[in-house]
Amino acid sequence: MIANMAALGAALCWAAGGLIAIGPVRVLGSIAFNRLRLTIVATGLLAAATLMGGWHTLDGGAVLTLALSGAMGIVLGDMALFWSLSRLGPRRNVVIYAANAPLTALLAYAVLGEALGPWTMLGVLLVTLGVMLAVALRSGSTHSWEAVQGSLLAAVAVCMVAAVGQAVGSVIAKPVMAAGADPVASAAVRVTTAALMFTAIGALSAVRTGAATSLGAVAAGLFRFGPGLTPRLALQVAGNGLLGVGLGMTLLLIGLANGNAGVVATLSALSPVLILPMMWVLTGQRPALGAWVGAAVAVAGVALIVNR
Fold this sequence. Notes:
Layout: H1 2-28, H2 30-52, H3 60-88, H4 90-97, H5 100-112, H6 118-136, H7 152-178, H8 183-208, H9 215-221, H10 231-258, H11 261-268, H12 271-283, H13 289-306
């Protein structure tokens, strides 16, 4: 039950975080957005882990494993996810990204030997099907968030890369979490690794494009995020990071520590269902009846999983 509730909490955080992120991502770009939000969250998590005394649960091997998990799940996953978010909009993006649930279940079975019982497997399939139906049966929207920018095929492909990165990152982290690693300290390692890697990517990008020609210019550029960064956008970036990365990732790791990786990934992939009423409230556009049918199917799947 702890794993299930943590996974559902992560889904709620990611659904809300996706709505907060759409504006800043389109203004700043995915790399600058991630560099700023991960730096903010890493600072907070490092302080929290130190105050809570969770570092003693991690040895050198665990730190390296979690760092690799962060590189795959956050750096590769988030860079691809937010690139596609800026082109697909939050609803389509979150739905395609939900493919990480069955991918995680397959990888957990192949790599970790975590098999699912027949009723749980049916629940996983119903959740995945419900998520897909919630979008496939939803009527078109004219809100600016729903506009596709650039190639639809390219955006979908990149979003699938994000799903694979998340699945691989979860499976890598699972043994460490199951061994008793502190979730906050583990999240701090993953996020700090990602923040450093995004900082390096930003520096290399500045050198490659000729925007910075000296070490001092590169260092100074790391603290600039473009003329589009306003105080309002900065607060949105911080809110997305603390909610989606700080709290959401910590809940995901708690789920992995206490439950089956495939089940945790499936429940945390309910963001597309949870995002429907949020978008209704924010945009004033009511989802079609078919979207609620899909949501009902997903909820039935959750009921099967939770009651097994």
